[in-house]
Amino acid sequence: MRIVVTGATGNVGTSVVRLLAEDEEVGSVRGLARRVPDWSPPKTEWSAVDLASEQSNLVEEFTGADAVVHLAWAFQPTHDPAVTWRTNVLGSIRVFEAVAAAGVPALVHASSVGAYSPGPKDEAVDESWPTHGWPDAAYCREKAYLERALDSFEGEHPSVRVVRMRPAFLFKRESASEQRRIFGGRFLPGPLARPQMLPFLPDIPGLRVQALHTDDAARAYWLAVREEVRGAFNLAAEPPVDAALLGEMLDVSRRVRLPRTAARSAIAAAWGLHLLPASPHLFDAVLRLPLMDCTRARTELGWRPERTANQVLEEFLQGMQEGAGARTEPMHGGKVG
């Protein structure tokens, strides 16, 4: 098989490329990224491609591929959503159109839990839950819009096997520095990387989410390439992450109930001053995301996560302490302050 991976140098891309390169049934992997990395896995070749550019010749990149795994995504700048829209939405639509034009038989697309409409925190929903996102958050708005774009694409190109992966929040040791820069900026990582310095743990109503190791998500992408499956798959590890779990994991016994409005006001102020990259709109969305039922991934893909959410977060926090990274531009390491 010949597989093309967009966004191949990011958190998910590095795990997917590594796994594909180790597969005896994969003859070659072409990684697309804005900057060619100093990293050469077996059977992998690179192309410098900017999906935001109309000059990118994606049809040429995709011709002869057995599958395209579309992972490319820009999280910033959060203060200028028109920029992320050009890369994430318009760039993705170019990918979809090029897949059809090049005659690629399979498209595996990185959707997200963020595509889901607000839902319950005390029970899990399956893939039939509405995917209208949270309209005030650019990330959710873009993920939801692409779900509608894929609906149209599937109707126009029924011969293309389309798979939509909807993972929970993805972490690994090597992603610690990248995610610190994307979401926390310079001022947040110190206390997080040194949990023993936390005097208490904020307990915010609704802050109950799911996590997953990036390598476990990559294995689901790999299975979606290999198996003749279609449609959406939820991906998450157990147990759900909330203040009680974090307090136990970080050995912080004191939890302080913090109203949503107070937490949001602090985040909004820091974001407005450009001290915090993550927007208050994304915080609003996180409080409303449903928990996901992953039964379909287990029964149809044969997929189960190998790590618990506790193990995922422990590894990630250790990575933050060490300034862990990888040999690609998005993933380069950096010590925390």
What do you see in this structure?
- This protein is an alpha/beta fold and 337 residues long.
- 39% of the residues lie in helices and 16% in strands.
- α1 crosses α7 and α3 packs parallel to α4.
- It starts with a strand and ends in a 15-residue tail after the last helix.
- 44% of the residues are buried.
- The mean pLDDT is 92.
Element layout with pairings:
Blueprint: E1 2-6, H1 11-21, E2 28-33, E3 44-48, H2 58-62, E4 67-70, H3 81-102, E5 106-110, E6 124-125, H4 138-156, E7 161-167, E8 169-171, H5 176-184, H6 189-193, E9 201-203, E10 211-213, H7 214-226, E11 231-235, H8 243-250, E12 255-257, H9 260-272, H10 280-286, E13 291-292, H11 295-301, H12 309-322
Helix pairs in contact: 1-7, 3-4
State the main characteristics.
single chain, 337 residues, alpha/beta, seven-stranded parallel sheet, two-stranded parallel sheet, 12 helices, 13 strands, 16% strand, globular
